[in-house]
Inverse folding.
């Protein structure tokens, strides 16, 4: 068989793809498959090795004597493992962040990273979850909007958004300074400062409620020391309800104080008396009230007194709902 350039090109690409998938290349088997000599396969492997070194792919081609195959080593740093891909896919499905069609495409592309002989296994593991995936009620594709917002944030460009609040029928035009895009509990959120307000307080907008987005020519500046930090914001906000920074203290007598520390990353245990833990934490806004109420009798708010009184009033209102059965 004549080793034409076309045949050689296909052969080399085929071997390179399989090597990148983590598969091994047996020189004798490869020669038989392509009807060429083993010396030809060796030259192909030498070319692949030279390309890897020139492209600085952070891996190298080695002969594994025990398996009698050539393999790429040290590629774990650049390629997700099957375990990592499966975990990411599970998180994505649970998030319900995208339309079903978008989610399916993303999952398939992630699984394609894994070695070919493991792809079907992962597909089978998540088959039922993928099939039963349900879109959120807004049923909007947000990928392009998220990208546009992120670009405006990087360029520090003021934007104009037409924002439709829940329960409203007419969107309101807002001029804002975009700071960050955050995902939390099913939804993407834009964190921004309102250009019309004198005091810079982070305001939360649900991205799916943005009806129209326009990047304006006007840039904004925020001193480096006052820059918005998504990580610090996340630690202090619950259920994406923004507002003033607030210091709270509460007693927790539930079975898992660790769950409190995980839910409130700024929380600290001040004392523990017979399973009654005194916590303090720093939070933004009133979203914390939703979490505190969800803990039922396991929580008693101590400070601030305004929040304690608000909790008492809410609990009284809840009792009124159950007066008659």
């Amino acid at each position: 068989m004549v080793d034409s350039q076309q045949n050689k090109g296909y052969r080399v690409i085929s071997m390179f793809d399989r090597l990148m998938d983590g598969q091994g290349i047996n020189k004798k088997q490869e020669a038989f498959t392509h009807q060429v000599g083993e010396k030809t396969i060796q030259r192909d492997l030498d070319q692949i090795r030279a390309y890897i070194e020139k492209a600085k792919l952070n891996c190298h081609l080695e002969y594994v004597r025990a398996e009698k195959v050539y393999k790429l080593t040290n590629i774990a740093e650049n390629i997700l493992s099957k375990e990592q891909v499966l975990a990411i896919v599970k998180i994505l499905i649970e998030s319900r962040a995208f339309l079903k069609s978008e989610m399916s495409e993303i999952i398939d592309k992630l699984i394609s990273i894994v070695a070919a002989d493991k792809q079907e296994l992962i597909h089978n593991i998540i088959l039922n979850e993928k099939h039963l995936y349900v879109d959120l009620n807004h049923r909007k594709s947000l990928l392009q909007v998220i990208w546009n917002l992120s670009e405006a944030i990087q360029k520090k460009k003021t934007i104009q958004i037409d924002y439709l609040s829940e329960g409203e029928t007419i969107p309101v035009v807002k001029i804002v300074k975009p700071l960050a895009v955050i995902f939390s509990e099913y939804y993407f959120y834009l964190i921004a400062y309102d250009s019309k307000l004198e005091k810079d307080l982070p305001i939360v907008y649900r991205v799916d409620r943005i009806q129209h987005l326009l990047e304006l020519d006007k840039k904004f500046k925020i001193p480096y020391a006052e820059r918005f930090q998504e990580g610090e914001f996340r630690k202090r906000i619950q259920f994406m309800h923004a507002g003033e920074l607030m210091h709270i203290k509460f007693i927790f007598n539930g079975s898992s104080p660790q769950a409190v520390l995980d839910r409130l990353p700024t929380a600290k245990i001040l004392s523990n008396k017979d399973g009654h833990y005194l916590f303090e934490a720093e939070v933004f806004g009133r979203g914390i009230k939703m979490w505190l109420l969800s803990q039922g009798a396991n929580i008693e708010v101590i400070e601030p007194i305004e929040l304690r009184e608000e909790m008492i009033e809410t609990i009284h209102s809840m009792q009124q709902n159950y007066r008659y059965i």
Remarks:
- The chain has a mean pLDDT of 86.
- The chain has eleven helices and eleven strands.
- The longest strand covers residues 172-184.
